[in-house]
Amino acid sequence: MAKTIMIVDDSSTMLMSLRNSLEIAGYNVLSANDGQPALDQLKAGAKPDLIITDINMPNMGGIEFIGKARAVTGFRFTPILVLTTESQQAKRDDAKKLGATGWLVKPVSGADLTKIIKQVLPGA
Amino acid sequence: MVRAKLSLWAAAASPHCARWWGFVCLWRSPIAIACALLAMVFRLAPSVQAAVVGSLQGRPDDIALVLAAVLLLAALRWTSVAPAPVLAGRAAALPQLGPIQALLDTHLELDNEIDKKLQEVVVDTESSAIAIIGQVRQLHDSSNTLAQYLDKTNPQANTLGEDIVASMTYLVQIGAFIEELPAKLTRDLNAVQGVVQELTELSSLVGSVRAISMQSHLLSINAAIEGSRAGPGGAAFRVVAEEMRLLASNSSNVALKIGKGLERARAVVEAGMATRVAESSKAQSDVSQAVVSIRKLQENFEDMSQYFKTRFAVITQHNQNLTADIAAVLGHIQYQDVVKQCIDRMRNTTSQRNALLEEALAQMKQDGSEAAQLPQLLAQILANFVEEEQKHKHSARHDEQASGELKFELF
Questions:
Q1: What is the pTM of this model?
Q2: Which CATH architecture has domain B125-333?
Q3: Which among A24, A56, A106 is the nearest to B323, CB-wise?
Q4: Which pairs from B23-26 meet CB under 8 Å and 24+ separation?
Q5: If interface means Cβ-Cβ distance under 8 Å, which residues of chain A face chain B?
Q6: CB contact under 8 A, B331 and A87
Q7: A56-113: per-residue pLDDT in tens?
Q8: Residue A32 belongs to some domain of the structure
Q9: Residue A67 belongs to some domain of the structure
Q10: What ipTM did this prediction achieve?
C-alpha cells in the first residue's frame, strides 16, 4: 500500500513541485500552505506516514509546527523532515531539539527526495 | 566622503547651524570662529540668552558677557540678514535640506517602483513555474500511458511469438518431410520397378503353363486313340482322356488370359512409373524451393522478434530516462522559491534602509548631530544582510559537490 506524505510550504511552486515528484514516485500526498492548517489536518485525523515542512512560513513556522505536531496523539514518532533554503546550524539544532528527523536544503530533485524517503521510511 | 556628506547634512539640519558652519568654514578666521561658536552657544542655549537679558536689566558685573553677547547678536543679525556677497555665494553652494528631501523622496519612489516590479516578477515566475510543473506532469502522464501500453503489448507480443514459434516448428517439420519426399519417391519407384520385374517373371511362367497344357492336350489325344483301339474296355479310358483334353484346353485358355492380364498390368505400372519419374524432377525442385522459403521465413521471424525486443528495451529505457529527467526538472523548478525568498530578503533589507534614511532625515530636521550615527546604522544593515545571505549561501548552488555543503542531514 502506498505511503502518505504531508508537505507543508507557503510556496505554491514548492507544493506543486513536491506533490508531482512524490505522486510520480508513487506516494499519496497531503499538503498545507502553513503550519497551522497542517496542524489542523493532523488533529482532524489525517495520518501521514511522513511530514516534510518548510521553516519560514507567514503564520506558523516549521519549527513551531514540529513542536506542536509532536504533541498531537499518534505523531510522536512520525518522521518529520525539514526542507528549507536555510543551512545555519542553530536552526538545525532547534529543529532537532523539537523532534525533527532530518534537515534537507532546497532545492531537492525527485530522485534525491525518493532516496531520502526510502532511507527514512524503510519499505516505502 | 561619507563623513563630509554627513557633516553637510548635519549642518543642513538647522538653517542657523548652516549659517554658522558656513561662517566658520569660509572665513577661516580665529575671530570669526570664536564669534561663531559663541553665537551658536547663545543661539542654541536659552539659558545663555536669559543671562544676557538679565545682565542688561541690573547685573553690570557681567558686562563682558553682555558685550560679547551684543557683539554676537550683531554678528548673528549681520550674517542672517545681510551676508557679504562672496559669503552668500559660497553659502549657496552648501547642501540644503530641501534638495536632500527631494532626493530621498525620489529615491524612495524609485525603490517603490522597483519593489512593485520585483513583486510582479515573483508572481509571474511563480505562475510560470506552476504552469511548467503542470505541463511536465502531463508529459509524464503521457509517457506513463505509453509505458503502460507497452507493458500490455509485451505479453501479447510474447504470446504471438510463442504461437509463431510453434507454427515454425510445424513448418520446419513440414519442410523436413518435403525434404525427404524425393528419397521416398525414389524408394517408391524402386518398389514399382520390383513389381514390374515380378510381373515379367510371372509372364514367363504363363508360357510354361501353356506348354504344359499343350503337352497335356496331346497326351489326352493319344490316350483317346489308345482307348478307341482297346474297344469297349477302353471306353472309360476315353472318357478320362476327353476330360484331360478339356482340362488342358481350359488351362491353356486361363494361362493365356493370365498372361494378357499381367502384360496389361506391367504396361500400366511402367506407364505410371514413367510419369512419376518425369514428375519427380520438378517435384524435387519445388521441394528445394519450399525448404529454402521456410528457412527464410524462420530467419525473418527471428530477426523480427529480436528487433521488437530491442525496440521494446530501448523504448523502456527512454521512458525511464524521461521520468528521471522530469523528476530533475521538478527539482530545478524549486529554484523559483529559492530566488523568491532571496528577493524577499533583499526587499526587506531595502525597506529597512529606506526607513532608516527617512528617520535620519526627520532627525536632521530636529537635530543634525543625530545623523552622525547613520553610517554605523547603515553598516549594521549591511552586516545583517551579508550574515543572512551567508546562511542561504549554499542553497542556490546547483553543484552540491562543488559547494561541499551537505544537503541532507539525518538527525
A1: 0.60
A2: Orthogonal Bundle (1.10)
A3: A24
A4: B23/B79, B23/B87, B26/B86, B26/B87, B26/B90, B26/B91
A5: 9, 11-14, 16-17, 20-21, 24-25, 56, 85-88, 92, 95-96, 100-114, 116, 119-120
A6: no
A7: 999 999 999 999 999 999 999 999 999 998 888 888 999 999 999 999 998 888 888 9
A8: yes
A9: yes
A10: 0.87
